Amino acid sequence: MKKFTQIILLSIMTLSCTTNPKDAATFSGKITNIAQNAELRLFNKSGYEKIIEIKEDGTFEDTLKVAAGKYTFQIGQEYGFIYLQNGHQAHIKLDTEQFDNTLMFSGDDADKNNFIIANLLLPQTALPDDIFSKDEAGFDLAFKDLRKSYDSLKMAYPNLTDDFFIEYDEQFTLNQKLYKDYFLSKLELLEKFPKGTPSPLFTDYRNADGSKSSLTDFSGSYVYIDVWATWCGPCIAEIPALELLQNQFKDKNVVFLSVSIDQEKDFEKWLKMIEDKNLAGNQVIADNAWQSEFVKAYLIDGIPRFILLDPENKIVSADAPRPSDPTIIKMLNELLKAS
């Protein structure tokens, strides 16, 4: 009888170890093409953070006590979102080389999580690539079509409640306003700086080597200007693409000019980043950060900003494509071919 009781107790203990506890969420996954010693960082805007080790075979699993809601997870330089709730299981599967296109969810909240990722990618698939090149009527029509796509996406998940969608409905409205504000700012730039307008100038900006340069020093070449700062994450993210672009046009009549708007107190930091990252091209620092006349003249209120000038210091684009945007290659090739 005693032996039988021990067997029953052991069975209960085993069952309790394999059953998802009601006061915690189980988060697991399978990641392919994972780097050595990889880890997953899980966090939310309320301050929760947990580091989860990813095994060599790409699998991971952890039990977490969480407040029900949306969390951000980070693997390397990539980010995703996941809904977690105590007592529920959540499983992800993805390939790091095609993060967004392969991310899939299973488990108790699979519908919520698959909606979250599909909604996140919706602007990339439903908005036209040239949305910021349209007139205002075309822009509004594109967002009307995006709204239809968003409503269709919601209908594809009939098991999700209206309460769940409240956050995403509000976010859609906010995103539409942000897109529209950015679009209107581009229209303002286009109206103030149409193609062929003489560019605002700067004089005697300091170079990294201690000399000074003025914008007119680069007359005779197309000038691709990168307005950036050492503290700007999106600026730093463009550096690899900028280096590739410089190499592609190194024997062409194109000058690459990086204008830092770091403050004077960060001058040494700017010099160190140039050295540490072996930044190529012409490196100058503006004379008064955001308040520099050149920066204010171009209505720059966010960076990075890229500007393209022709050999006569006339504007080709006051808001040129970023180095990571393939259209800048096409633009430069067409200009060089026509010149």
* Percentage of residues in DSSP E strands: 15-25%
> What is the number of helices?
10
- From the 3D structure, determine the CATH topology of the largest domain: Glutaredoxin
Question: Could you say which overall geometry the principal axes of the C-alpha atoms support?
Answer: globular
Q: Main β-sheet, in a few words? A: 7 strands, mixed
User: What's the total number of strands?
Assistant: 15
SSE topology string: HEEEEEEEHEHHHEEEHHEHEHEEH
Q: Report helical residue fraction.
A: 25-40%
Q: Which CATH-level-2 architecture of the largest domain?
A: 3-Layer(aba) Sandwich
What's the CATH H-level superfamily name of the largest domain? Glutaredoxin
Poorly predicted ranges: 1-19
Tally of distinct domains: 3
Query: How much is the radius of gyration in Å?
Result: 26 Å
The top-level CATH class of the largest domain is Alpha Beta
Mean model confidence by pLDDT: 90
- The largest sheet has its strands arranged as 10-9-13-12-11-14-15
The secondary-structure class comes to alpha+beta
Q: Tell me the span between the first and last alpha carbons.
A: 97 Å
